[in-house]
Write a structure and sequence with these properties.
Blueprint lengths: L4 E9 L6 E10 L4 E5 L6 H9 L6 E5 L4 E4 L11 H11 L4 H14 L15 H13 L5 E5 L7 H16 L3 E5 L12 E6 L2 E5 L11 E7 L8 H6 L2 E6 L2 E7 L3 H9 L6 E6 L1 H4 L1
Parallel strand pairs: 3-7, 3-8, 5-6, 6-7
Antiparallel strand pairs: 1-2, 1-4, 8-9, 10-12, 10-13, 11-12
Helix pairs in contact: 2-3, 5-7
This protein binds adenosine-5'-triphosphate (ATP).
Length: 285
């Protein structure tokens, strides 16, 4: 069973006498949960994410229950003498994959993110967007139990952004936790289990409805689950509404921008759900 990562009384300041950036942070990240972190510029979001990712240690307080963690930093260091594929394969082996499995996973993720054409390009010659795809791929390679994403969507093209949203749904669907910061308030809107704001040097849990599901076009999805199975929690969160229409049959309404994430969540559920029908609300009448 995957451990729950916990921060208790955590504080961080830089330098012996630097001001406290964060103090008194108590936070648990449950397996399978999606957590959004918000806050104004320079409030300490990246500091918190580095602590969660385990690449920085708190000045005070305790971090316990570290799961297998992967991290997409705000700035990815590309100045390494490797091609994208060799770099990712190497990192895959560092994460515990065999060389063969790492090479396969590297190829699959470059393909999914639309960067297969850059597999043999040295990291130093990649554009900013392609570098970001490598940064995302290195974090997803080994199916981490905790995925920490610091502005990971920034610089990606629309297809890769959608692919990363699907990857997040897959991780949480598989029981992993995902913590993310993103400047777009609509990112994964409606999906997070918890939203925290970094303000005045500490963390505040946002109560009330999480980020509202955006207005705009909707899609209606008819699904049939395995006998007796409850609708997967991730699907329930992404959907704007869900209605049980018969034994195992549900009709879900979802923002069109989130329909891909919803479908992927259902199709990758274990056991998978059968998508019976996808249509617009107008067709439904
Ligand atoms: N390595 C460091 N050394 C010294 N000070 C740092 C370091 N990293 C962050 N800080 C300081 O800590 C504070 C919080 O920075 P942090 O990058 O965590 O905030 P943020 O909310 O992620 O900001 P942004 O939204 O601009 O990315 C800032 O005052 C920053 O200057």
């Amino acid at each position: 069973m995957q451990p729950e990562l916990r921060l208790d009384g955590v504080g961080r300041r830089y330098g012996l006498r630097g001001p406290w950036v964060l103090r008194g942070v108590d936070l648990g990240v449950e397996p399978g949960s999606l957590v959004r972190v918000e806050g104004a510029n320079g409030t300490g979001k990246s500091t918190l994410l580095r602590l969660l990712a385990g690449i920085d240690a708190p000045t005070e307080g305790r971090v316990t229950g570290r799961p297998r963690t992967a991290y997409v930093p705000e700035r990815f260091p590309p100045a390494l003498p490797f091609t994208a594929a060799r770099y990712l394969t190497h990192l895959g082996t560092v994460h515990g994959l065999t060389r063969r499995a790492a090479a396969r996973a590297a190829g699959e993720w470059l393909e999914r993110l639309g960067a297969a054409g850059y597999a043999d390009t040295p990291l130093t010659r990649l554009s900013k967007g392609s570098s970001q795809k490598v940064a995302v791929a290195q974090a997803l390679l080994a199916e981490p139990e905790l995925l920490v994403l610091d502005e990971a969507w920034t610089g990606l093209d629309a297809d890769a952004r959608a692919e990363l949203e699907r990857a997040v749904a897959e991780r949480t669907g598989a029981g992993g936790a995902v913590v993310f910061v993103d400047h777009d308030p609509g990112r994964l809107a409606g999906a997070p289990d918890a939203v925290y704001t970094v303000r005045e040097g500490t963390l505040h849990r946002r109560t009330g409805p999480a980020t509202p599901v955006p207005d705009g076009p909707r899609v209606v999805v008819g699904v049939q689950g395995p006998p007796g199975a409850a609708l997967p929690a991730d699907a329930r969160r992404v959907a704007a509404s869900a209605e049980e229409t018969g034994p195992g049959s549900h009709t879900l309404t979802v923002a069109a921008s989130h329909s891909d994430v919803l479908l992927r969540t259902l199709l990758t559920a274990r056991p998978p759900w059968h998508v019976v029908r996808v249509h617009t609300p107008e067709d439904h009448r």
